[in-house]
Amino acid sequence: MSSAMALRLDEQTRRRLARLAARRGTTRSALVREAITALVEKEERQAALRPHDIVKDVVGSVHGGDPDRSTDVGRKVRRMLSGRRSRR
Q1: Is there a contact between 31 and 20 (Cβ–Cβ < 8 Å)?
Q2: What is the pLDDT of residues 54-78, one digit of tens each?
Q3: What is the 3-state secondary structure (H, E, C) of the chain?
Q4: pTM over the 0.70 mark
């Protein structure tokens, strides 16, 4: 079952929508429904993504660097900060 919904558009957008509807041989309402459906589907797909899904194409693409970078981070930071203090 469908229900009505009011939508306010500025005049330029309304004219552009009318021209597009005429080119496609459809109604303005059909175009608005299509656009809303596409937006909602896109947002739902993005919300369903896990952080890994977003970066999986670049994971493992960088080689080199310090392999122990995340080991003993607290000790490394303390050493770095104490070095900065002693230079003042």
Answers
A1: yes
A2: 888 888 777 777 777 778 888 888 8
A3: CCCCCCCCCCHHHHHHHHHHHHHHCCCHHHHHHHHHHHHHHHHHHHHHCCHHHHHCCCCCCCCCCCCCCCCCHHHHHHHHHHHHHHHC
A4: no
